[in-house]
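User: Please predict the structure of the protein below. I'd like the answer in structure-token form so I can feed it into my own downstream comparison script.

Assistant: Understood. Taking the following sequence of 88 residues as input:
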Amino acid sequence: MGLCEAMAHGCPVVATEYNAGVFDLIEPGTNGVVVPREDVNALADALRRLMSDPSLRRKLGAAATKIESRYGIGRVMALWAELMPARA
């Protein structure tokens, strides 16, 4: 949830490959950065690169906001309503 919230607010994100689901949220190099699990050097490099490159931060952050169309509350609630329609 935290990853989606940060992306929806335009924050450039760095995540580890903690599971395959991370790739449902992040398209590496387009809306965020994904590094191998438990690779401290790759994580440090990714953070360093983002901190030193304002244009990359803006690019990734702007693209990250598109997560709202897939996982925003309006979309998720509509999916729940389809799954469990109200009873009359």
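That's the full token string. Residues 40-52 form the longest helix (13 residues).
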